[in-house]
């Protein structure tokens, strides 16, 4: 009697090396924009999840993240799989280059890693109809902070460059 032990699985697609193997599980989907990042760890509200490293300056693109009034970067890591949510689990602080758990609830292992895209993006390269599933918290069409009211933006932690542009917009209305 012989037993066959398969120790390696042959896949037709080569998955890239995870950038955050202890922190982030990436679920890849062949459906465009359906891939996502999930947390492998639990962490308290407001805590530092990881520093954002290995970025490169970039033009505005659907994968880029805005870091200042006129600056954008590519993340070049699995952090790029963090999707938008109107009820996000983390904040991307592009000033301190930190990913932190949101201030009002703890992160649990298995949670999707999501952030509120208008907290970094003033005007997005590719606007979309949100399907985050957060019920009445969902803002519908997401195209950046520019087209969201100051009241709505007030529900979220915002990067300094976005807060600054919102303040200017308000000042311009007076
Ligand atoms: Zn939403």
TrEMBL record:
Residues 1-13 have a biased composition (Low complexity). Residues 22-118 form the SET domain. It holds the Pfam family SET. InterPro entries: Flavunoidine_N-MTase, SET_dom, SET_dom_sf. It comes from the Eukaryota. Residues 1-22 are annotated as: Disordered. This is SET domain-containing protein. It comes from Aspergillus brasiliensis (strain CBS 101740 / IMI 381727 / IBT 21946).
């Amino acid at each position: 009697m012989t037993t066959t032990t398969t120790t390696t699985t042959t896949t037709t697609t080569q998955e890239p090396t995870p950038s955050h193997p202890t922190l982030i599980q990436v679920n890849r989907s062949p459906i465009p924009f359906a891939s996502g990042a999930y947390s492998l760890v639990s962490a308290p509200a407001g805590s530092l999840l990881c520093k954002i490293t290995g970025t490169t300056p970039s033009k505005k693109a659907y994968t880029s993240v805005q870091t200042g009034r006129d600056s954008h970067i590519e993340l070049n890591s699995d952090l790029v799989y963090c999707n938008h949510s109107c009820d996000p689990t983390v904040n991307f602080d592009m000033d301190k280059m930190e990913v932190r758990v949101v201030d009002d609830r703890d992160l649990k292992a298995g949670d999707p890693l999501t952030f509120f895209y208008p907290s970094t993006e003033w005007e997005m390269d590719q606007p979309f109809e949100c399907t985050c599933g957060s019920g009445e918290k969902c803002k519908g069409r997401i195209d950046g902070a520019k087209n969201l009211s100051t009241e709505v933006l007030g529900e979220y932690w915002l990067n300094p460059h976005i807060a600054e542009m919102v303040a200017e917009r308000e000042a311009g209305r007076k």
